[in-house]
Specification:
heterotrimer; A mainly alpha; B alpha/beta; C mainly alpha; A: mainly alpha; two-stranded antiparallel ribbon; 53% helix; globular; C: mainly alpha; 70% helix
Chain lengths: 146, 711, 70
């Protein structure tokens, strides 16, 4: 069942901006168990960037492909199928009920939110030696009011 | 005895200085204002030299040159000290003039040559000044016994010699001596020795005249008496040694306690270890919190919390479709499950044979017919329902990401604080530990052990000696009895015998009188000393917090300080400097008053270490004019400007004479005016404590409200 | 008070512990004491003083012997 949800997306390419990857990958991504760095894998950076972009409520155009770096394909989403579902919800909210039969467009919408989110993340964690804390603290700015 | 004036010529830097002393009964105080290095010590020493010669100078100063160190080499200098004083010898007042002169030639460095000293003591008669009969120094020694000079001429630190110093035994001796000398008990001691001399002589004579039996008994007795005397001296020396060791031991113990007081090193190490363990635990806790934060950021909860608006909007679109039955409200899987279970979601029985079952089965087959896109929508809708329900539930429970985030950040901050505090505490403990010098503790402990061993040894020796003395005394008694028996048995000249018995009677009388007097005097000095000390130090035994209850002289001539609650303090090192000075001055004053001695009391820097109320009361007590029935006295205080501060009014009220001493060595740093003299010298001027002049003015005098003398 | 006078006052009390050899013995003993002490203010050398004290006691002793009639 899980696999079914993810299947349309398995061959989709997933990107981060080169600039972000170069500057922040080491600071923010670490497989090791401790929480010093907030993200276990790049897919997690990508996803949170999407969510941040959605929270801000703005999609940004993707830059030229030479400014992008592919870090994985949609197959990686198999681990957290809820992300696929949520991505589809975001796509529906952005472009209506028919978008859901176009996986590449769903992914495109995701990337557009991600571009916004990556800029915000970069701004908040740049220079921090404690990115997890910095990020947790900064999220207050974009969390909806209670 | 009262000083009238003193003149110093070429004694150290006192080139030509004359000092006048107050002889006014109701103004017994003379103030000599001088800064350190301006001649206070020189004046004291010059007076000591004038009266006693080099032997009168403090130990270590006997061989020092008396000329200024700036005196040119190979040029002889005539040094002279003249002191004019007055004495009441029972027949009225007689004026005397003491003149001591010597020629000294500096030979470079500390070397010098000194000619013979000339001493004259002149008495004022109607016919003019006349040399006294007899040796001038012996006469002066009777007026001012040399071994009491530290009572008459005291320098600030000397003041403490009665109560501090190397050993209790030494202190007791000094106090005992002071009492005996000042209270005329000396003469009784001398009288007793003179009579003892006669007793011994008569015994010998008796023995010789009576025959060999008596002679040998007498000899035997003499030997034992001598042995007793020798052992007694030995015992004194050992007792002195013991009290010196005891003082040493106490000092070491005190130091050891101070070092140990910092703390027990084992305890401190244990605490450090425990705190370090705590710190490690806190750091692990921090890691755990960060890991929780990471999990939270990447969770579905966070997504729903942050993107809730869009996610709910997307969900609503699907929900709308389901409402319009464009997509199935329920998924195929759920329907299949329900058919298998036999109960609908709403609770209706849909088991085999029930009419409602057909309805559900129809729903299921309809779903199968839905198009692919609808199919996808359906899938997404059903998948999203869970997430949405969870999110709503969390909002209600306040367990949503927003709350979790706040919770984790708070935990993190509190943990950080705890880490910081634990770190600080560890630092403090480590510093404390560093203060305990293990090496020093070991050294001190070993020295203490050493001292204890020596103490035990010397105590044992004392014990043995006391034993043999007791033994000897028993034998002396037996020998005396044997002698007297032999004396009676032999045909001794009875007259000779009577003479001996009478001499012995006299000796006994003198001894008994001596001890009664001593204890009477001790009591009177003790009381007077206590009254004065308590007045000065300001302790009211009734007041809470007052430390001193009473001071007194013990029978052993020890100065004892009693505290509230029946404890006592060792005046040597458990009493502070100001109180020590007050104690010693009280003792000296009590001694002088009880003995009725009118020797002058000259004190250099008496008020160092005292301030405020104690200073005021001390000066008040030592300058208070005598009552009608008391003999007159003189007190000369050599004071620096800072000692004078806060007591100017009191000093002015009591001083019958004031002068100032200054040294041109202090120009230009402290002294304002250039005397235009190429060599260092000390000069006196008539300025009192409120004045300055061209000679004595110092840089900050006008700031302290002093005014120019003579305008 | 003059220290000598003080000493005499006390001596007069202490003398009662001494055996009374004849009625006025105590008074005379105290007087002798005073004389012995006074020898110290005559400016004599130690030797001379002791000799004179010895003579003093010698004389007093003779007096006592004769008063005791033995």
């Amino acid at each position: 069942m899980m696999a079914e949800i993810v299947t349309p997306y398995t061959s989709q390419d997933l990107f981060l901006t080169r600039a972000f990857d170069d500057e922040f990958a080491n600071q923010l991504v670490s497989r090791s168990v401790d929480g010093r760095q907030p993200f276990p894998r790049k897919i997690d950076v990508w996803w949170v960037a999407i969510v941040v972009g959605a929270a801000i409520g703005h999609r940004s155009r993707l830059p030229a492909s030479d400014k992008l770096t592919k870090f994985n394909t949609g197959a990686i989403l198999g681990r957290e199928p809820w992300r696929v579902t949520n991505l589809e919800l975001l796509a529906l909210a952005s472009e209506g009920e028919d978008i859901i039969s176009k996986p590449s467009d769903v992914v495109r919408i995701g990337h557009e939110y991600a571009m916004t989110g990556l800029d915000w993340l970069a701004d908040k964690v740049r220079g921090s030696s404690q990115p997890t804390i910095t990020l947790m603290t900064a999220l207050a700015e974009i969390l909806p009011p209670k | 005895m009262q000083l009238k004036y003193a003149e110093f010529h070429n004694f150290k830097l006192l080139e030509n200085v004359r000092l006048e002393f107050s002889t006014n009964r109701s103004l017994p105080l003379t103030v000599i204002r001088a800064e350190n290095g301006s001649g206070k010590t020189s004046v004291l020493w010059a007076l000591l030299w004038g009266f006693y010669g080099t032997r009168g100078l403090p130990a270590g100063a006997h061989e020092l040159r008396l000329t200024s160190s700036a005196a040119p080499i190979d040029a002889p200098v005539d040094i002279q000290v003249i002191v004019e004083f007055e004495r009441d010898d029972g027949h009225g007042k007689t004026a005397y003039r003491m003149i001591r002169t010597v020629q000294e030639t500096p030979r470079g460095g500390d070397r010098f040559e000194r000619g013979p000293v000339k001493v004259r003591l002149l008495r004022r008669t109607p016919a003019g000044l006349v040399d006294v009969d007899g040796d001038p120094e012996a006469v002066v020694a009777k007026f001012l016994p040399p071994r009491l000079k530290s009572i008459f001429f005291t320098d600030g630190d000397d003041v403490q010699r009665f109560i501090s110093g190397e050993s209790i035994h030494g202190r007791q001796n000094r106090v005992h001596e002071a009492i005996r000398a000042l209270l005329g008990l000396d003469s009784l001691g001398v009288a007793r020795d003179d009579v003892e001399n006669v007793v011994a002589k008569l015994r010998r004579e008796t023995a010789k005249s009576a025959g060999s039996d008596l002679e040998s008994a007498e000899k035997h007795l003499s030997e034992i008496t001598e042995a007793i005397a020798t052992k007694t001296t030995e015992l004194d020396a050992l007792t002195e040694r013991r009290s010196r060791i005891a003082s040493e031991k106490a000092a070491i113990q005190k130091e050891l306690n101070e070092v140990r007081g910092i703390g027990n090193i084992d305890e401190i190490n244990a605490e450090i270890k425990s705190r370090e363990g705590e710190l490690a635990r806190l750091e692990s806790a921090e890691d755990a919190i960060l890991t929780s934060m990471r999990i939270a950021i990447n969770s579905q909860d966070a997504s729903w919390a942050l993107a809730s608006e869009s996610l709910l909007s997307g969900y609503d679109i699907l929900n709308g479709l389901a409402d319009r039955r464009i997509i199935p409200g329920t998924s195929i899987e759920v329907l299949t499950d329900r058919l298998d279970i036999g109960t609908c979601i709403c609770g209706t029985d849909i088991s085999d044979g029930q009419s409602a079952r057909a309805h559900v089965e129809t729903l299921r087959s309809e779903q199968r017919k839905v198009s692919e896109s609808r199919s996808r929508q359906t899938q997404t809708f059903h998948a999203a329902r869970m997430g949405r329900a969870t999110y709503q539930g969390q909002l209600e429970d306040r367990t949503d990401f927003a709350h979790r985030r706040t919770e984790l950040l708070t935990q993190y901050a509190e943990n950080r604080d705890a880490i910081k505090n634990a770190g600080l505490r560890i630092e403090v403990l480590k510093e404390k530990r560093a203060g305990i010098d293990e090496e020093r503790v070991r050294t001190l402990a070993s020295r203490l052990e050493n001292a204890e061993r020596k103490l035990t040894d010397v105590s044992e020796s004392i014990g043995r000696l006391e034993g043999s003395l007791a033994d000897l005394e028993d034998r002396a008694k037996l020998a005396t009895d044997a002698y007297e028996k032999a004396e009676r048995a032999s045909k001794v000249n009875q007259t000779l015998r009577t003479k001996r018995l009478v001499a012995e009677d006299l000796k006994t009388l003198i001894s008994n009188t001596l001890s009664v007097l001593e204890s009477q005097y001790v009591e009177r000095v003790s009381t007077r000393m206590n009254d004065m000390f308590m007045e000065v130090v300001g302790s009211d035994p009734e007041l809470a917090g007052a430390v001193f209850r009473r001071v007194c002289l013990s029978d052993g001539f020890d100065i004892m300080v009693h505290t509230i609650g029946d404890g006592h303090l060792d005046p040597d090192f458990e009493v502070n400097g100001a109180s020590q000075r007050a104690l010693t001055l009280s003792f000296i004053w009590a001694l002088m008053e009880v003995s009725g001695q009118t020797a002058p009391r000259i004190i250099d820097t008496p008020l160092g270490m005292t301030a405020g109320g104690v200073k005021q009361r001390m000066v008040e007590a030592i300058t208070r004019p005598p009552s009608e029935s008391d003999p007159p006295f003189q007190v000369v205080l050599l004071l620096t400007r800072s000692e004078l501060r806060d007591i100017e009014t009191l000093l002015e009220q009591r001083a019958g004479a004031t002068q100032t001493l200054s040294s041109n060595k202090d120009y230009p740093v402290d002294l304002t005016h250039d005397w235009k003299v190429e060599y260092p010298v000390i000069r006196a001027c008539a300025c009192n404590i409120r004045q300055f002049c061209d000679v004595c003015q110092r840089r900050y005098d006008d700031e302290h409200g002093l005014i120019a003398r003579g305008g | 008070m003059n220290p000598i006078l003080q000493a005499v006052v006390v001596a007069k009390q202490q003398v009662s512990d001494i055996e009374v050899r004849y009625p006025t013995y105590h008074t005379e003993l105290v007087n002798t004491l005073v004389e012995v002490i006074q020898k110290q203010s005559e400016g004599l050398s130690d030797q001379k003083r002791r000799t004179e004290v010895s003579q003093l006691l010698d004389a007093f002793g003779s007096t006592v012997a004769s008063k005791q009639g033995r």
